[in-house]
Specification:
- Helices cover 78% and strands 6% of the residues.
- With 168 residues, it is mainly alpha-helical.
- α3 (38-75) runs antiparallel to α4 and α4 (81-135) packs across α5.
- It is elongated, with a radius of gyration of 28 Å.
Length: 168
């Protein structure tokens, strides 16, 4: 009886293995596919033009803060209390401006990314469906979710980008 169960188990394992091997598996890096599209490049370009001056202003404020800190470190011991207090107060104001400006920039970036992804998601789904049909794919995985494989899996990332670009 044990031998019979063992033989049946091996037979079932072989059957499952052959079914698993018959399934066509491919991978896609959907983030890369989206970010390499013309629409993504255009969206990033628009964002840069919107927040470019804010980024320059933030960089200038950062440099001013560094200079104030260096001045306080180098000359702080020989400054009068009122002069040192005045510099520290100026530094705090600039730091607050810097933090607020960085938050505005980050918020603008997040809003632009969210708007782009919201618009691109249905197109991405259509592109993936089209590729799965075209290539007879049974399982499509995110390339970043794969830890290790012994097989060369079909990577459809570039094709997804091409299809997305053709949809615009």
């Amino acid at each position: 009886m044990r031998k019979m169960m063992g033989v049946m188990s091996l037979g079932l394992l072989g059957l499952f293995a052959s079914v698993a091997q018959a399934a066509e598996v491919a991978v896609v890096d959907w983030r890369q596919a989206l970010m390499e599209t013309r629409a993504a490049q255009q969206s990033m370009s628009q964002l840069e033009s919107q927040i470019g001056s804010q980024q320059q202003q933030a960089q200038a404020l950062g440099e001013e803060l560094e200079q104030l800190q260096q001045r306080l470190q180098q000359d702080g011991a020989v400054m009068s209390d009122s002069e040192r207090q005045s510099l520290m107060q100026e530094g705090q104001q600039k730091e607050q401006q810097f933090v607020e400006l960085r938050q505005q920039i980050i918020q603008a970036q997040q809003q632009a990314e969210q708007a782009f992804l919201q618009d691109a998601e249905p197109k991405l789904e259509r592109a993936v469906d089209e590729l799965m049909t075209r290539h007879g794919i049974d399982v499509l995985m995110d390339i970043n979710g794969i830890i290790n494989t012994n097989q060369d899996l079909m990577n459809l990332t570039d094709e997804v980008t091409e299809i997305l670009d053709s949809m615009n």
